[in-house]
Amino acid sequence: MVSAALWGGLASISLLIGALMGIYLKIPKIYIAFIMAFGTGILIGAATFDLLLHALHESGIVLAGISFLIGALVFTIVEVMLNKKGGSDRKRSKKNPTGHSGMAIYAGTLLDAIPESIIIGVSLLSNSHVNWLFVVAIFISNLPESLSSSVGLKLDHYSNRKILGLWTSVVIVSSICSLIGYVFLKNASEQFLTSIGAFGAGALISMVCTTMLPEAFEESGPIVGFITSLGLIFSLFLTQI
After folding, report:
1. Which residues are listed as membrane-spanning (predicted)?
2. What pTM did the predictor assign?
3. Is 86 left (phi over 0), alpha (psi -120 to 50) or beta?
4. What per-residue confidence (pLDDT) applies to 127?
């Protein structure tokens, strides 16, 4: 049980690392975009090679497909709501022209982090050991997210203490969600657990397509396709370890 919280926190600690880098270092946007593209590839790989395929084998194509699409739909609906409040720029390293977007950015980050963390807890139940591919995927993808967002929040005149406080709270919430996923689904069937994984995979794919890939392409251009492909192959390599 404790391990679920620890792994959830470890996967999300890169949010705090990225925030510190965004606040105190001046990293060219193109390098941030490269990391984001690589993390996107890993997340796509984790969602498909691990979560979705596992659900397919345990639950069948119909239940896996429906769970995946429901996850994508739920994320999309919430994303549309957050976009109207300024949350669409949560991964952008620019000043928000509408202002007052801080809490929407925070809510959007939680939207990304919560399903990821729950899946970590679920993976411990399903596999009896941590899913390394998923932990690595979340860790790498979180780094450019908080780095880029922290730069944008600074431009919106948020203090360093407030920015670090926001990201620290996300790490804590991630640990709690991973623990919740482990505790409350402890007696769930394997079929239900894999369906939850497929649901999370749908949310992840929607997230990277609407937030991470557009930012990466905007800052680095067509090369983002190749770097994302490298991340995808890296995730395939991790499945063989």
Report:
1. 6-25, 30-49, 61-82, 103-126, 163-185, 191-213, 220-238
2. 0.79
3. left
4. 62
